[in-house]
Amino acid sequence: MCEVARFACLTRALWRGDVTRSITGSRAGTTALEAALVLLVVAWPTLTVLSVEPGLDGIPPELQLRLLDDAVQGAALVSACITAVLTVLMPGSRALETMLVTLPLSRTTRAVGPLVPLLVTALVGGPVVVSPLLAPAVRLGSPAVAVAAVLLTGGAALAAALVATALIRLLRWLAVRVGLAEVLATSVAAALTLAVAVVALVGVRGLPLAALAPVDATGSALALRAVACLLALAVGVVSLVGAARLRRASPSIIGVRVLVHRGRSLARGRSAVVDALLWCRDPAAVSTLLLMALLVVATAVAARTGSWWAAVLALPLLLGAPSAVGLVHYGTDRTTSWRRSTVLPLHEDRWAIVRTVEGLVLGLVAGGLTALLLVPRDVGEDWWQILALVALAAGAGLLAGVMVPSDLELPGASVLAAALAAVLTGVPTWALTHAAPDGRSPAVLAVVAAVLGIATPVAIQVRRRRAVTA
């Protein structure tokens, strides 16, 4: 355990260094950011618990258990999501492995040690995020239910993080064996793990727990849930240790030959086919597509079942899907555009216009599919407003991705690019909401989106004049 703890401290130092280098710029800023996160972790659950006022009459045991189950299942799902996202974004630890290669550490310690900060983050983040669900169970339930809610949400979050980490490692090992690059394999494994988590949550919600333990016997019902949580923790520990014993996978010769052959064949095709091939081989683009598609589909399924959080996420996803596609579009071919300069003069090269049109089309397609899944069919003339917002989000994301390229060679740039896209989308929308009449708002938003689209190739040319691989 001491070796794992030291390993975890070194991994945390790597995380601090990456945050300092890419976001804050100083150790004091990173420390202040950590302090703000700790304050948020403490203040948010406290405020949500205090905001729930218990009534004079107690609620029935059936409702208490329903509140408990919602909090536990929500914490598990959020913990799995945090684990998947942090696994994709976690800085590489090969430098650390190289420094410690001569030390007598077991393979399990080397594999589990760097994961401790990730598991702690998921353990804390799951209950904190679902505090609005946890607070009613704590304040309105009996003392036994309140204690069980706190313990079971933490246990479920840790179990979900352990199982998700093990599943990501196993799927990544299989993907590398097929022939995918390790970074791309991690993204694919994280997306598939999120899909499994959603399916597992739907299956758990359908279990007949009332038949196994009657709701009027609260003690038996809580004991059943405690046993299930302990079993999940045991499965998580065993699966993580087993996944940690996997050796680094080497690509399958057959898989590599197939991918190389198909890649060469596609690379000889039209420019649009080559751009599609670059998209498929870019880890940031693949991660964005898989994660956004999963979020949209999960929200659409939740909306069909009447979940309250589906209505909350509908508008952010409607704007976020086209914006996210635009953010990563320029980065998929940013570092290879210099080859065109060896053939065509910069003022004769139409590559910037082609890339802009491709990005806008991809953003509009992503936004249109999201709207079809999340927007009700009876909105009437509001469809024009929705399409204008989608076009604005696509143009804002594309321009922000050019101004702050969000590819993996610029750590932390994706955060700045997303913030810039949010500003380019939110400011015009807010201004037109308060200034333009309702009938003219879609037309004005379309004009703003067109202006952003026209500014994008100009920004690309400016970057290419400033540096060869800009």
Shape: globular
Mean pLDDT across all residues, rounded?
A: 76
**Structural class, from secondary structure content?**
mainly alpha
The succession of helices and strands, N to C, reads HHHHHHHHHHHHHHHHHHHH
Describe this structure in words.
This protein is mainly α and 470 residues long. Helices cover 79% and strands 0% of the residues. It has 20 helices and no strands. The protein has helices at 2-24, 27-51, 61-89, 94-99, 107-112, 116-129, 131-140, 143-178, 182-205, 209-212, 218-244, 253-267, 271-281, 283-304, 308-329, 338-341, 351-374, 382-403, 413-435, 441-466. Helix 7 (131-140) runs antiparallel to helix 8, helix 8 (143-178) packs parallel to helix 11 and helix 15 (308-329) runs antiparallel to helix 17 (351-374). It is globular and about 75 Å long. The mean pLDDT is 76.
Task: Provide a brief overview of the structure.
This protein is an all-alpha fold.
